[in-house]
Amino acid sequence: MANTFQVDVVSPEETVWSGTATFLLAKTPEGELGIMANHEPLMGSLVTGAVIVEAEDGARTTIGVHGGFLQVLDNQVTLITDRAQITAGGREEARQVAEQLAAESETSEEAPAAEPEA
Q1: Domain contains 113
Q2: Are the C-beta atoms of residues 16 and 9 closer than 8 Å to each other?
Q3: Which domain does 88 fall in, by range?
Q4: pLDDT digits (tens, 9 = 90+) for 94-118
Q5: What would the DSSP string read from start to end of 69-91?
Q6: 116 within some domain
Q7: Distance between CA atoms of 110 and 117, rounded to whole angstroms?
Q8: Strand extents, DSSP E, 1-118
């Protein structure tokens, strides 16, 4: 039996995925980062792309992520994301979903704020 660790992927709206995993793959500005149980503590930023979580039961979950941070500490991995969504497909579909989430975020940031009525 493989060693496991707790994973929580959260966005401002919800907990996107939470469970026990044997492996996690995320994309940072420096490149892809693979995490297994007993990984050294670290913090890093996430870039728009796919996150792959291999659960304890062997199921693989692919999540499209737009921005955020990753923390590894005491066999607990927490991804705090700007936007995230589980995808049904693989890595390429997750990347496309992440890019769509990024575009939606940019659009909502560019929208002018509503003027209060006097």
Answers
A1: no
A2: yes
A3: 5-108
A4: 888 888 888 887 776 655 555 555 5
A5: EEEEETTEEEEEEEEEEEESS-H
A6: no
A7: 21
A8: 5-10, 15-28, 31-35, 42-45, 49-55, 60-73, 76-87
Tokens representing 66?
A: 């737009």
Number of domains in the chain: 1
Find, among 49, 60, 2, 58, the residue nearest to 26 by Cα: 49
pLDDT 10s digits, 40-95:
999 999 999 999 999 999 999 999 999 999 999 999 999 999 999 999 888 778 88
The CATH number of the domain where 11 resides is what?
2.60.15.10
- 118 occurs within a structural domain: no
CA distance 63 to 24: 11
Position of tokens 């796919």?
50
CA atoms within 13 A on the CB side of 109: 7
The contacts of residue 69 (CB under 8 Å, 6+ apart) are: 43, 44, 45, 46, 79, 80
pTM: 0.81
